[in-house]
Structures are given as C-alpha cells and as structure tokens.
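The aim of this short unit is practical: by the end, you should be able to scan a pair of folded records and say something sensible about each. We start with the first protein, listed as its amino acid sequence and then its structure tokens.
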Amino acid sequence: MCCLPHVSCRSLRRVAAAVIVVLFPVAESGALPKTNSPERRLWQELPPGYVEGEVVDMHFDGMLVLLSAFVSLIGAFAALTTSAYLRLVQSTKWYYIMLLQCGLGLGISTVWAMHFVAMRSVHLWGGSESGGAQEISMGFDKAITSFSALIGWMFSTMAVHLAQGTSRTGHRLALSSVILAAGIFSLHYVGLLAERGPFIIHYDVGMVLMTLVVALICSMGTMALFQHPPKSTKWRVAGAWLVAALVCSMHYIALLPLTHKTHASGWTWSVIWEAAEVRAEVPIIVSLLLDVLLMTGNAFYLEVIQVLDKAARERELQHGDFVSGTKRLMKRCRQMQFPMAVLRAIDFMKLGKIVQHECLRDRKLLVMLDTPVAAAKLRRKGCIIFFSHQWLSADLPDPAGHHFDNMTRAIQAIARSQRLKTENIFVWVDYSCIPQRSTEQQQLAVNSLPAYVAACSEFVVIAPQVLHASTKAPCNFTSYASRFWCRLEVFCALMSAMAQEQAQHISSLMASGVSSAGTINSMSNESPNKESDVSLEDDLCDLSKQSMYMVCEGKLQPLVFLGPHGLKEDFAELLNVYGGRLGCCQRGHKTESGEEILCDKARVVETLTGLYGTMVVRLLKLRKEREGGRLQRGFLQLGDMLIQQREALFPAEYFSTRIQAVHEFLSQELCQSKTRKVRSNGSEGTNGSLTMSDVDLLLQELGAVIVPEDSSVALSDAVLGSCGIGPWRGDEEDPQEPRMLI
C-alpha cells in the first residue's frame, strides 16, 4: 500500500450528503435521518467476532468475475457493430439515434453492467485483527447506482461522437479518450459511493491517481477501435475481446486503492430509496436486454435505415445530374427534336375537317421544317398560325367540325388584316401536325412544342361556345383554360415572348377580361385609366399588330395577357399548367384494354424545366436593362411570379428537384462568368457586380437565342418556290426580323 495518507470515505460522503440535502430539501427521503428516528439499513450491528475499525479482506467470486468479462464482451461487440454502421448513416436524425444506442452499448452494457457484476463478485469477510469469518452484508443505493449508469452513458456517447469525425483524427482520438476516461473513472467511484454496509471505505490517493492514468491508457485503446471499427465480423469479435479486456483491467485495477474498515453505523444515508441488496442477475439481465436492443437497432438499420440512406444518396446523385443537365435542357427546349409539320392554309380549308397527321403525310400535304431557321425563312414569306384548342371528344379533336369552321374564319380574318394571300399562310394544328400512331415520334414532337410555338407568327385560341361530344358538357374559354395541354401551349407562348431579344418586335400582351360565359370582353368596354389609356391605345391600335387572337362566337378578337398593372388575374391561372385537367388522369392512366400508360404530366417535365431556365435567364437580362417600357415591367412581374410560386407551379411530385437545380446551375454559371470577366479584364469588375457582358456571355453559352443566325440551314427561295410560296415583299428590301410568337 502506498505511504501517502488515506482519505476516509466517510468524510467524502458527508460532504456529498450535505450538497444533496441542499438540492433536495423538501423530500423526506432526501434528507439526513433525524436523530430521534431509527436508521434505515440492511444491518443492525457488526457481525459477531469483528472489531470496530479493523480492515476487512475482499474476496472474489471467480464465476461472477468471468461473467462480468463475458457481459463486457457482448456489450463491446454490439457497440462496435453499431459504431461501424454509424459511419454509414446519412440522415442526421438516425445518426443521433444510433449514436445514443452506441453510447448505451459502450457506457452501460460494456462498462457499467460489467462494473456492477464485478462489484457483486466481491465478498467481505475475515477481520485483520479479530479474524472474524462471517460475511459482512453489502447493499447498494439504487439512486446513486442509476446515476453512475447515466454518467457512463453520457460520457461514452460524447466520446464516440468525437471519435467518429473524419478530420484531425489524432486530436479527436486524444480528446475522446480523455472524455471516456473521465466518464469511466467517475462511473467507477460514484458506483463505489453507492455501497452500503457496516463499514467505511478508505482510498489510497496515490493509487487513485494511478487508476486515472490506467483509465486514460485503456480508453485510448478503446477509442482507437471505435474510431476505426473493424468491418469484418471476425475482427470485430477480436476487437470486442480487446475492449472487454481493457474495461475489466480498468475496473479491477481501480479496486486496488480501496480498504474496507468495519464500522457499526456504516453509511446509512440514502437519496431516494433505501439501500437494497441487489443480486448480480439484475445488471446481467439489463446488459443482455441492451445488447438485444442494440443488435435489433443494427438489424433495423440494415433493413430500413440503410435503404433510406441509399435512397438519399441516389437523390443527391440525381440532383447533381439535374444540375449538370440543365444546360442541355435549356438548349433542347428551343430545338426541334421532331420536324415541325405545317399545312398550307389553302389545303387545310379544302379538307373540310381536321385530318390526322399520318393521312396528311401520306397525301404529301405537309411541309416539314427541320430547324427554327427554316421556320423563320418560311415566316418571312408569309405567316404561320398556331391553333390552340380543346378536344371535343376523347378520340377526335373536332367530331362535329365546330372548331374547323372557326379556324377557317380565323385564317380569312388574319389574311385580310395582314394583307396576305392564303397561299402564303400556313397552319399548325396538333392532330394534323403531331404524329398520332407512333408513341416515340409523338413524344419527340411534344418535346418540340416550345419550338413549334416560337416558330409561329400568330397564336390563335379556338374556344367557341359548344358542347362536348362525349360528356355534353359546355366547352368555351373557361373549359379551354382548365385543360392541361391548353395551358401548356399558352405557357410556351408567354415563355417565347420573354425569350425575344428585342421587345419592340413583340406584340402587345394587354389582357381583356373573360366573362362567365367564356367570351372575351373587348378592351374598349373597360373603364379607362388615366395613365394607361394612351399605352392601351398604342398597343391595341390595329389588329395587324396583334400576334395572339381568340375566336369566339365566330369573331377573331385580340387575346392578350398583360394589363397596365401586370398579368391579368383572369389569365394567371393559365400559368398553373399542372393544375390543368387531363383525360388520362380521369381514366386512371389506363387504356381501354387495361394497359398502364404514363401520365401526360410526366411527359413534359424536361421541356418545362428547360423553359423555366430560359425564362430565368431572360429575367436576369431584363433586370440589367436600365430602360424598359410597360411590357418589360409586365414580363418582370410575370417572371417574379413564376419564381415565387415555383414550388406550386412545378410540383416536386413530377419535377423532383429540377427547378432547384436550375437555380443552382445558373448561379454557378454566373459566378464562372464573373470569374472569366475578372481574369480577362484584370482589376476591372472586382467590385462584385455582374455586368451586362456577363449576362450576354451566359445567354450565348446557354443558347438562349431562339433563332440563331445560321443561314447554312435556311430554306432557299427555290425550295420555297417549289412549295408555291412567293415573296410578299421586294427582294431588294432587308429581310424583316422574324416576329416570334407574342
């Protein structure tokens, strides 16, 4: 025994008791027993044959010693397994849940349970002076014992959390080892403080300090294993043996500073419960239950959490693909993936009805335009009309010919207003210009819908007051505005308008109201506005300046969307494309034969993502332009609304994180553009603001210009002449800029 002075456990306990009395003054069980009340204890006096104050020998039950090591081994294996899985968890919530489980395995099942079983292996008998042979009874204060378990759990959890970090592993190992050593040291001696019996404990201070050093060394070995847990079961079992050996070494070496001396009154005070004699089976059962809990948690991780983490990683990789693929989508949404088929108006009117695409193709009545440049060349010679309408039956777009009659009137009205020959007018109608038999070709044409809309010079909505052939429901502009495909075509038209390079070539978008009957009220019937009257008259001065019309009640009326104060409320709902109704959804996405089909809303996701990206780019440029008229302000308001309501307009059910990826991609491109600008200009532009050249460079890189200047693929006059299309202006004049839709 060390020659340093001994510190009586009795004095330490009295100090601790005084502190706890201050903390728990109102509980009778939390105060020192009164002098006039009997002492609560497991014993009444010293066993016969013992002398007051003599040293009592400690004896160990070999079976319980081995059992304590086995308990520590099982707990260490469960904790190491949990620690190995802990590194793989992606979710923060599940990480902390499994971290608490790992702390349970190490702090309670491995250390505390082993400590308590080992304490139950200790038997006190044999007085050093009297030679008393009767065993001295020993009990434990359950509150302090439970508190020691909490200490082990808390410190072990913190140590494992620190050891799990990937950066500065050396510092983490040292700090986590110190925390674990402090926890085990505190657990051990707080647990000894819970002992009750006719004795008092004396500690050798030098030996206590030595046990602290041993605890630190053993904790370093333990934390090294938890910092790099073995991956295979064989090495994990070996690591569990090592951890169990280190923990047992810490405990039994920490018993060396103890000396039990007989005392009749012993330590009689308790915090909450009276001291009780607890058998070794209790901590063993607790430890095994915790081990079962840990292994069940690990199995749950393998079955559930790992699947969730894998799905989260896949979503992260998918989002990265969305970001990297945004540029491709923004370019593709302006390309014709399938040639644009148009029909000469004179041939269209001779048909007498809307005819299927394949029939017109076989009769060689379709003019195929492979590129937007070809469409621009054709548009210089005449006019291309895009007809947008609601189908009046499930199988045929216009079984009774109501829409065809209105389309014919619209062609004649536009020809008169723009002084064009019918031979120079071409029309685009979905049923006639999109493949109906081949699903693959139809999808390519659907992907090209924004390019088709942008290639047309006029956009005409056909929405007369008629009845649906199948449901007999009234069909008008209100029903038109509720359909998914109709909203999509209008959305493409507005996005095409924003993508124009010069606003002066874009026709007015002043909106007229929609009555309950589905007709368009004329602008002239609205109450005048002092400031906006002039601009209204300027924009609506002549029908020939319009590019969007509506045929209602047999009349061609201007259909425009922006009012003096921004987008009209009557038309704002049209921008909610995914709020529109679809026939496939009403049929449960099944064909008549019961075959599952893809929802049409999923077919245009990539196209709308690209359109949204080009809209954001255009919005950037509009914000950079210092001067702008009412139309520009209207587009700014429109773009802001789309961005603010993007979660509702582009639901994650279909778009996932594509819209967020668009914003991330554009932010990256703008930062890179700024960096290139700074590098090329040296110190210029270092104030952190983006210049117009930055935005122009971004527009150029993203291919935001709808019609590139590429004359090599333009249709020649000879080819146009072979189609019966003659020039409608002098060849000596400079060709007019192609007037894009809206």
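Turning to the second protein, read its sequence before its tokens, just as you did above.
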Amino acid sequence: QITILAVLTFFIWAGESLFEYLFQILWRNLAQRLQSDLRQDAYEHAQRLDMSFFEARSSGQLVATMNDDVNQLERFLDGGANAMIQV
C-alpha cells in the first residue's frame, strides 16, 4: 500500500507541476500580448493627435509617460494579478 501511495503522490505532484508550468506560460503570453497591444494602441493614438498637442509638451515626457504606464501594467501582471488569481 505504501508503494501505491508513493506512486500516486508522485503522479499528483507531476500533474500539478505540469499545470503550473502551462499556466505560467499562458499567463506570460497573455501579459505580453496585452502589453504589445497597449503599446500599439498608444502609438496609433499618438499618430492621430494634432501637432499642437506635441508643441505644448516635450516628446521625452510623452514617451516616458507611455512607457511608465505600460511598465506598471507589466509589474502588475507579473506579480499582483497572478497572486490574486492563485488565491
């Protein structure tokens, strides 16, 4: 009986590890796709803005703001959202 229990425990552990691995891969792919889409949407929106918008602001400030927003989303998706889902 102990052998059967040990084998069963191993298969349960292997199955759990496989599902955790697949979950992490799928989650990272989703997070990267969201970030890519957000960057693309922000770029397309910036292309449609009038020149007066860019004259009133520095280009470095605009790029830094867009990058910072996407980076904050990345930090949330890497840690916070994953932890909330697993709880």
